[in-house]
Automatic annotation (TrEMBL):
SUPFAM superfamilies: Isochorismatase-like hydrolases. Residues 3-155 form the Isochorismatase-like domain. One of its GO terms (molecular function) is hydrolase activity. Keywords: Hydrolase. This is Isochorismatase family protein. The keyword Hydrolase applies. It comes from Sporosarcina thermotolerans. InterPro entries: Isochorismatase-like_dom, Isochorismatase-like_hydrls, Isochorismatase-like_sf. The keyword Cell inner membrane does not apply. It holds the Pfam family Isochorismatase. It comes from the Bacteria. Belongs to the isochorismatase family.
């Protein structure tokens, strides 16, 4: 069984940039999974620090309005991995999931950590590169011209254990 993981699509992240393209792709994939009756699991990241945009209970910690209506199953986390000290593995086990699709934010943290953690737990993993986004830039990492999403996608692709697709490839392969 395939399941979609929608990671950290929260107000406190979306407010940092123009993520309309990413949100449109994520919504399209959600609608595809919903139409096929396949599970969609939303992940919400929380921080304990009141100054964090993802402080638990704040508006920033809420799922973004573009996807909130689809959220039937929500897993809460406090680390980059959606598996670490969460019930995600139990939820996937109950649903008999063996293949997860990764979308959401931030590409180089929560999406990548979750993809690697899923592989380590024996899942087939499909990382939909352009259906992830990040608030960070090449300046954040002091690496001029770094395309974070492309870099992470390339690293995961070359691992030869995680399938990395862009949205159009996803449509051709799975829709």
């Amino acid at each position: 069984m395939e399941a979609l993981l929608v990671i950290d699509v929260q107000n406190g992240i979306i407010e940092f940039g123009d993520f309309n393209n990413e949100l449109n792709l994520i919504t399209n994939i959600i609608e595809d999974f919903k139409a096929k009756g396949k599970p969609i699991i939303f992940i919400r990241h929380f921080d304990d620090m009141e100054e964090s945009p993802l402080y638990k209970g704040s508006v920033g910690s809420e799922l973004h309005s573009s996807i909130k209506e689809f959220a039937e199953v929500v897993v809460e986390k406090q680390t980059p991995s959606s598996f670490f000290k969460t019930e995600l593995a139990d939820v996937l086990g109950e649903l008999e999931v063996d293949h997860v699709f990764i979308t959401g934010f931030n590409t180089e943290f929560c999406c990548m950590f979750t993809a690697i953690s899923a592989f380590d737990r024996g899942y087939k993993v499909t990382f939909i590169e352009d259906a992830t986004g990040t608030v960070n830039t090449d300046e954040t990492y002091e690496m001029p011209n770094l395309d974070i999403r492309d870099f992470v996608g390339t690293v995961l692709y070359w691992s030869d254990v995680i399938e990395v697709l862009d949205y159009e490839e996803y449509v051709e392969e799975y829709k």
